[in-house]
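Page 42, continued from yesterday. The earlier attempt failed because a stray header line got pasted into the input along with the sequence. Redoing it now with the clean sequence only.
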Amino acid sequence: MNKQNTKEHLRHPALNLKLEALHRCFELGEDIQTVSNEIGYSTASIYTWRKKYIQKSVAGLMRSSKERARGTPQEGTLASFKEVE
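This time it went through. Structure tokens are written below.
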């Protein structure tokens, strides 16, 4: 498999690609290896997407944990921009 992060093969593929692969494999019953070869991502990736989808629905497929938003800071924990000035 291609492990490069290129325009044609992103390290973090689009949500619609993941959902389509899951649909083909687990709803339509297509062979996972065949789908894997066609989309250019490993069978292990497809199974990982399935696991995340089962655990967290679509939200589990949207972003990797390293890319998740950090949330808003709690009041009193960080200095505001005005306080720093």
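Notes: The helical segments are 15-27, 32-39, 43-56, 59-62, 81-84.
Reminder to self: strip header lines before submitting.
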